[in-house]
Design brief:
- The structure is a single chain.
- The chain contains four helices and two strands.
- The chain is mainly α.
- It has one domain.
- A two-stranded antiparallel ribbon has the order 1-2.
- It is flat and about 55 Å long.
C-alpha cells in the first residue's frame, strides 16, 4: 500500500503528472515502506493526522530521491577506519544516513509517529503517558 498517489506527488512537487519519472509508482511504494520502517508500523490509516503526515512524508522522500537520482541509501564517497582511508571516485557525496530528509522526519514527528520513548514532562502524546 502506498501512502501517496502519483497525483499527490505531482501536486507536492508542483509539476504535471506527465513530468514524473516512469517508475513513480515503485518510488511511492518504496517511500511508503520506508515510512512504515521509520514509524515501526504505527500508522493508523483511519486517523486523518496520520494519513496527512504519511502522504507528506512519502512525497518528501520521493522528492529527495528524484532530485538526487537515487531510491536507496546513498553511496559513500570515502570512509576511514583507523589508518585505512578508502576513496571511491565518482561516488555520491551524500552521507550514507541520508535515507530520509528533514521534511520526512518533521511530517512524521508532528503526527506523533516517530515517538520512541518516554514523553517529556508537560507534553501530551496520544496513546502515551507522560510524567
Amino acid at each position: 500500500m502506498s501512502y501517496a498517489t502519483s497525483a499527490d506527488l505531482a501536486e507536492y512537487l508542483a509539476i504535471s503528472q506527465d513530468d514524473l519519472p516512469e517508475d513513480v509508482d515503485r518510488l511511492l511504494a518504496r517511500a511508503s515502506e520506508e515510512v512504515d520502517y521509520l514509524t515501526l508500523n504505527r500508522v493508523d490509516t483511519t486517523e486523518a493526522t496520520h494519513v496527512s503526515a504519511t502522504k507528506a512524508a512519502a512525497c518528501a522522500l520521493c522528492e529527495y530521491w528524484i532530485r538526487n537520482a537515487a531510491d536507496t541509501a546513498a553511496t559513500v564517497a570515502s570512509y576511514t577506519i583507523g589508518k585505512l582511508t578508502v576513496n571511491q571516485p565518482g561516488a555520491s557525496t551524500v552521507p550514507i544516513d541520508a535515507r530520509t530528509t528533514a521534511r520526512v522526519r518533521f511530517a512524521l514527528m508532528k503526527a506523533g509517529l516517530l515517538y520512541r520513548g518516554v514523553a517529556q514532562a508537560g507534553t501530551s502524546i496520544p496513546g502515551e503517558s507522560s510524567f
